[in-house]
Amino acid sequence: MPRPVEVLAAARRALRPGGAVVVMDEAVAPEFAPGGDDLERLMYGFRLFVCLPDGMSSPPSAGTGTVMRAAPLRGYALEAGFTRFEVLPIEDFGFWRFYLLG
Fold it and tell me: Domain-by-domain residue ranges, the chain?
């Protein structure tokens, strides 16, 4: 997604007052670090060879890549006009993490 702030702002405008958006993304570590597990390495490979080049081919691009980790997503959400950001406590849902924006 080259322009996540624009996408999130459009989603926010589509909400009724008091509405919320749920974002689902891969449940990776909070930050990328050397020595990550197999999932981290897989996502990093996707980022370098698929998602980042695709996103960067549509300037202007945020250059996020494959995974929307909590810190960048929180920043994008605030910039898009959301005032609430929460990592939902949903566990045992396999590969996924859920965020609530309101």
Answer: 4-101
